[in-house]
Amino acid sequence: MATRQRRALTSDPPETASSPAYTKVDKPERSDGENEGVDRGLGWLLPLVCLGMLRHMSATSNIIHDCDEVFNYWEPLHYLLYKSGFQTWEYSSQFALRSYLYILLHKLVGWPAAWWFGEEKVRVFYAVRIFLAGLSVICDAALVVALSRKYGKRLASYALAMLCLASGCFFASTSFLPSSFSMYAMSLSSALFLFNKPAMAVSVAATGVILGWPFSILAFLPLTIYSLVKSFKPVFLTGVVTSIVLVVLSVLVDYDYYKKWTSSVINLLVYNVLGGGESHLYGTEGASFYLRNGFNNFNLCFVFALLFLAILPVAKKKYAPELLVVVSPVYLWIAFMSLQPHKEERFLYPIYPLICVAASAVIDSFPDLFRDKYNPNGSSTLVKIAKILRPLALGLILCVSHARTFSLINGYSAPIEIYKHLDYHDDAGPGSVLCVGSEWHRFPSSFFIPDYVGQVRWLDDGFTGLLPIPFNSSLGGTSAAPSYFNNKNKASERQYLKDPEQCTLLIELQLQRPYPTRGSDMTTWEIVAVLPYLDRELSPPLYRSFFIPNQWQQKNVFGQYRLLRRIQK
């Protein structure tokens, strides 16, 4: 007799060999962005186009914010290209604190640009800036795409808008500074980390530290440590190999230029850390310096970024641990740098992109602050209001950022623009001497000095510190160790022109002060170009920091940035 079989019920699964066991992977895709299998992210085109346009604007309109950018980077590059330029004590082979490997990276663009543009050195300057803008575009675009794939389009779009328009990112992205290079590395390293490529992320981090700014190693620590814990062997090997290759390359390049075996990376660390570097000689600031500058450059974006840890308990499921690892250098870096006596705005550059990321995460989480934990998908009145506040907060940040950018560009662009007028006054004759007094620290670099100007000389206006002095080819150029350089910021007898009567041209800033300037003697000098320059001391802080329509020009006080020529008698 045949055995009776139970009739199969419709709820019973078919018993076939091809039906695998049910696992967590078979669960429906989540809509909160935690599952990486769903590609809800932005493509590459939008970030590249938006960042490309804004970075090009930065390259062509950015001012020079720090004289270190000129004398420690633009001037050595000018010397490598044209065999003339100013040298600082850090580039003396006696101290060898600056890496020529970093300068060579920019020479790769500067040399063909110099060949192509010939005597038009200003175009070479902007060609290098376009190169810096391109690096920034690629790294920041990668960060935006990584955020979009990991956390969704909304957060990535917020970050993209801030990276494009936040004043801090706008200006830092095209600055010729190692801290800006470390900023590029921070964006790219964070992007690779979010793409789940920890070995490549640590390799890029090592490049940002060794080729860029050695002190930024602290900002890369959270990402590096987490990556090592997650995947030790490939991350460790990749990081070590990258570091060894770059250090060896740096030593070889330094030997070629300094003509002695040394490491500028180690020298810089030893001078500032182990050797008790006297950076306080160049100015000190209070503990709140970076908080004030952070607000000036990022306004509410900076405030929201600092609140990231506060919203983490609510949004922990979305952002921990990866985004917390990415954003944590904001707190670590600000705390560490605030403890240092010598402070400069550019020291915060490495974490600028992370400020935008942290602020974007906070804005994106506004509705989560008011959701019922027992009904997370519910839409209460407060949740609806929070959703409306997200674009309003972003719009306010972008408007205030534009106001800041507009104020700085229009208020302080006179120094870089006035030197361009030199091209129109070559009738002063070959071998002319251009003199600069107290405005030496706003000198935009020798790229703006036409060939008919034989020398640029400093005039003694009371500054007692050590000024840059032209590279001396007779002493060996880059390998020279001139006796007139020191690391105590003490003035050298050679830095000033003894006889001001030798000056053919003069650059000076005339402000509303009770004492006369050299150029005020109209029997000796004639004005050939003049541009307005915002007087920081006499202008109200609010109006000088941010452009307010119908008030900015009325409330602020302006001086005159002048180019003068000696009257022939």
From TrEMBL:
Signal peptide: none annotated. The chain crosses the membrane at residues 100-118, 124-146, 158-179, 199-223, 235-253, 297-315, 322-339. Its EC number is 2.4.1.-. It comes from the Eukaryota. This is Mannosyltransferase. Residues 1-37 are annotated as: Disordered. Pfam families: Glyco_transf_22. It is found in: Endoplasmic reticulum membrane. Belongs to the glycosyltransferase 22 family. GO terms for molecular function: glycosyltransferase activity. It is a multi-pass membrane protein. InterPro entries: GPI_mannosylTrfase. Pathway: Protein modification; protein glycosylation. Keywords: Endoplasmic reticulum, Glycosyltransferase, Membrane, Transferase, Transmembrane, Transmembrane helix. Residues 24-37 have a biased composition (Basic and acidic residues). GO terms for cellular component: endoplasmic reticulum membrane.
